[in-house]
Design goal:
seven-stranded mixed beta sheet, single chain, alpha/beta, about 450 residues
């Protein structure tokens, strides 16, 4: 059994991995995610889709969507028609949270849809009522909100799933933590283990690591329930402020009897005293909107479907975590696989390929999990574009994080954007990589007048 893992170079920030499982009698393929962060990448996505189609031919394809974020699904919207197989040999795998009958999924959708509907209305109010004042604080907040809401503001993830169901002719499997089964088309030589997303809201809502959990430290953030209460109150208050006809007592922070707009309002006079203008906080609270949008965005990351692929003969594991954050990681230690002695800790200890969580973000790799991985053979794959990451101020590719990756993998860290082209030849730009130890396990798509299309790693 040989497995090749192809990491596509989106020329953008996004995940797209094609796994080929080759046995002595047949080949089968699995595509994990396909998307770009920025919406102007459809030409490259169609180029990638065409390469996938030519690679697969008429072989069976399984498609996995780890979670509903644009940088994981936009390619299916822009280039999904290219992937459709007329012989209907495609199957779709989704998380149990995407199932209409999932109670956990219904609860999450209820919270997120409630937030996004209010958030969209509030953004329109801010643009109409406040942007005209051209206050730098307000404009900055609107700009931040626009980037934070890029994925979910219009709930386009639903469009992607509809497209995927069309590509797969409605052949869909919803996966639940604890599921384990043989990968179709591999002669029982590859076994799939489902680790996440978690059932427990305690894990689902925990985005960031504590002091002993991080590869590089961050403080723990508030949980989803608190966010829903405080966020709803803030958004309702803003709506009521600019749409008095919709005012409700429970919407506003102060009871109506305490609101005084008369000329004898002493506190109001003091607050509006120009000599004390430096003390005013008129716009400071607006930053809450950007923070809430960011929190909702990160919450979706923690719903990522997490899959471990085991080579049965060698027991080696390839781990694909989507954008799973700390709570998702911690839940793997509690997963029970029915009629199996395998544990989450066991799978981590045998991991030889790790798809870095959330493009190598600070809060998407649990130190305890990374430390367990097989350092003698570990390869870490990072689908990332440094320029796009820096453009939006994301916490990716931080020196401490990368040092942790290089330390654990002995330098075997491959980034989708780390290829140099010299005189028509492609050169791997990995200064820490020991080429002799790595042997012939890395392959790069040859240049055809444009940047490389993919990097490929072989696991035997």
């Amino acid at each position: 059994m040989t497995t090749t893992i192809r990491m596509y170079n989106q020329l953008n920030l996004g995940d797209c991995f094609l796994l080929k499982f080759s046995t002595s009698t047949e080949d089968s393929y699995l595509l994990i995610d396909f998307g770009s962060y920025e919406g102007n990448n459809s030409e490259r996505e169609r180029e990638i889709a065409q390469d996938i189609k030519e690679t697969i031919g008429d072989k069976k394809l399984t498609i996995v969507l780890t979670h509903q974020h644009k940088d994981h699904y936009s390619g299916f919207l822009h280039a999904g028609d290219i992937l459709k197989n007329k012989k209907n040999k495609t199957e779709l795998w989704l998380s149990y949270l995407d199932s209409e009958i999932s109670k956990e999924g219904q609860a999450i959708r209820s919270v997120t849809e409630k937030f996004w509907k209010k958030s969209k209305k509030v953004k329109a109010i801010l643009k109409n009522k406040l942007a005209a004042e051209a206050k730098p604080q307000i404009q900055m907040m609107l700009d931040k909100k626009e980037s934070f809401d890029l994925f979910a503001e219009d709930q386009s993830g639903g469009e992607a799933i509809t497209k995927l169901l069309e590509i797969a002719d409605n052949k869909v499997k919803f996966l639940t933590p604890g599921d384990h089964f043989m990968m179709p088309g591999t002669n029982d030589e590859i076994k799939v283990y489902v680790l996440g997303p978690p059932f427990d809201n305690k894990f689902l809502s925990k985005r960031d690591p504590g002091k002993s959990e991080e590869v590089q430290g961050l403080n723990a953030m508030m949980e989803m329930a608190n966010m829903d209460i405080s966020g709803s109150m803030m958004l309702d208050a803003l709506t009521s402020l600019y749409e008095p006809e919709s005012f409700q007592e429970y919407d506003f922070p102060f009871n109506r009897q305490y609101i005084n707009t008369g000329a004898d309002n002493g506190p109001k006079k003091a607050y509006e005293n120009m000599d004390e203008a430096w003390r005013k906080i008129d716009d400071d609270w607006l930053s809450e909107i950007g923070r809430l949008s960011l929190f909702m965005d990160k919450l979706t990351n923690n719903t990522s479907l997490v899959l471990a692929f085991e080579v049965v003969a060698s027991k080696k594991v390839m781990l694909f975590v989507g954008d799973a954050q700390i709570g998702n990681w911690q839940s793997w230690f509690n997963v029970v696989f029915k009629d199996s002695d395998v544990t989450g800790e066991d799978l981590l200890s045998r991991t030889v390929v790790y798809k870095a969580g959330h493009h190598s973000s600070l809060n998407a790799t649990l130190k305890q999990g990374l430390d367990l991985m097989n350092e003698r053979e570990l390869v870490i794959l990072i689908p990332v574009n440094q320029k796009v990451s820096e453009k939006y101020g994301f916490h990716m590719l931080k020196p401490g994080m990368l040092k942790g990756y290089h330390r654990k993998s002995q330098g075997r860290v491959l980034r989708s954007d780390s290829i140099v082209q010299n005189s028509g030849e492609l050169v791997l730009d990995f200064p820490f990589l020991d080429a002799e130890k790595f042997g012939n396990r890395i392959h790069v798509h040859p240049p055809k007048g444009h940047p490389h299309l993919w990097i490929e790693v072989t696991v035997t």
